[in-house]
Design brief:
Largest sheet: 8 strands, parallel, barrel
Low-confidence stretches: none
Structural class: alpha/beta
Helix content: 40-55%
Number of domains: 1
Strand content: 5-15%
Oligomer: single chain
Strand order of the largest sheet: 1-2-3-6-7-8-9-10
Number of strands: 10
Mean pLDDT: 97
Radius of gyration: 19 Å
CATH class: Alpha Beta
Bound molecules: 1,3-dihydroxyacetonephosphate
Distance between the termini: 31 Å
Length: about 350
């Protein structure tokens, strides 16, 4: 199988085609190190390669997974069976190779602990090099925190500006940008606060994308769902989250955007699946965009736990990963139910 995708709109549509979603396997070396700590596994280059290989070589992963986001190290690593570079290996399975290109969130000077994502310097050249090696889409994550005083307009505006600069550079290099403004779940805020901030951030991001000439048909939006904070007194349930998120996105995301692929953001695996399913049920056939997933933790946690860094656990870990991939695939169609868990 080869990837026959002629232009960025086709790539974007394929990334969110019904029944499929994106595997975010682009944890930086620091972040994957933290995940490995939880299973007492040393974060060596070899172990990181073995773990990503386990995910990518799972049987028929392409039935549920349209694309994979990789970190630079993985992008340059190769399959254990056959030594094929991962962009090529994934493409041969009909899976679209993607690359994380931001350089992480750093302190935003002049604010009370807010963050700005860096990585614009030299980005044009890096994108051209990744495109030559097979990347068809990229990812850039902006981080927004809700507290009593934040987010500030300054933080929202600077992050939206950087996201749009990145997206315009991607498109000029024939790479579909995943535009990811993530409002964190950390904190005591309630679902109404999450709604207000998410709506404002999305309006600001789309206004910047427009001003900088980004084609909406050639992007994927990767947002948070509208959720109560982890430490909120009363946390909203599945139906409330789904209807608030749908309402917020209907208000702020242009219909020209092919798809919204949610991040999981620390929700439980089951919640991430149930929320996506409920949203697809609310929208039914008449949705302006496809609603899918681009989960990291909510796809990988059970696999990591089953693996424990041991070769002999590889098949069990692959089964655990495929189970989540399949259930989330069903959720993109509104066909998931908790008794399938
Ligand atoms: P989570 O689904 O674990 O939030 O990760 C998705 C992601 O890519 C964050 O940038």
């Amino acid at each position: 199988m080869t990837l026959k995708l002629d232009n960025m709109n086709e790539v974007a549509e394929a990334m969110v085609s019904p029944g499929k979603g994106i595997l975010a396997a682009d944890e930086s070396t620091g972040t994957i190190g933290k995940r490995f700590d939880q299973i007492n596994t040393e974060s060596t280059e070899q172990n990181r390669n073995a773990y990503r290989d386990l995910l990518f070589s799972s049987d028929n992963i392409q039935e549920y997974i349209s694309g994979v986001i990789m970190y630079d190290e993985t992008f340059h690593q190769s399959s254990l069976d056959g030594g094929v570079s991962y962009p090529e290996y994934l493409a041969s399975k009909g899976i679209i190779p993607g690359i994380k290109v931001d350089a992480g969130a750093h302190d935003l000077a002049g604010t009370d602990g807010e963050k700005i994502t860096s990585g614009l310097d030299g980005l044009d050249e890096r994108l051209a090099a990744y495109r030559k090696l097979g990347a068809r889409f990229a990812k850039w994550r902006a981080v927004i925190n809700i507290t009593e005083l934040n987010p500030s307009d300054y933080c929202i505006n600077t992050n939206a500006h950087a996201l749009a600069r990145y997206a315009a550079l991607c498109q000029s290099n024939d790479i579909v940008p995943i535009v990811e403004p993530e409002i964190l779940m950390d904190g005591t805020h309630d679902i109404e606060d999450s709604f207000v901030v998410t709506e404002e951030v999305l309006h600001t991001v789309f206004s910047e994308l427009y001003k900088q000439g980004v084609q909406f048909e050639e992007i994927i939006l990767k947002p948070n769902m509208v959720l109560s904070g982890y430490d909120a007194d009363k946390r909203a349930g599945v139906d409330e989250v789904a209807s608030a998120t749908v309402q917020c996105f209907l208000r702020s995301v242009p219909a020209a955007v092919p798809g919204i692929a949610f991040l999981s953001g620390g929700q439980s695996d089951e919640d991430a699946t149930a929320h996506l399913n409920a949203m697809n049920q609310i929208l039914g056939e008449n949705k302006p965009w496809n609603l899918s997933f681009s989960y990291g933790r909510a796809l990988q946690q059970p696999a990591l736990k089953a693996w424990q860094g041991k070769d002999e656990n590889t098949s069990r870990a692959q089964e655990a990963f495929l189970k989540r991939a399949k259930l989330n695939s069903l959720a993109t169609l509104g066909k998931y139910s908790t008794d399938q868990e």
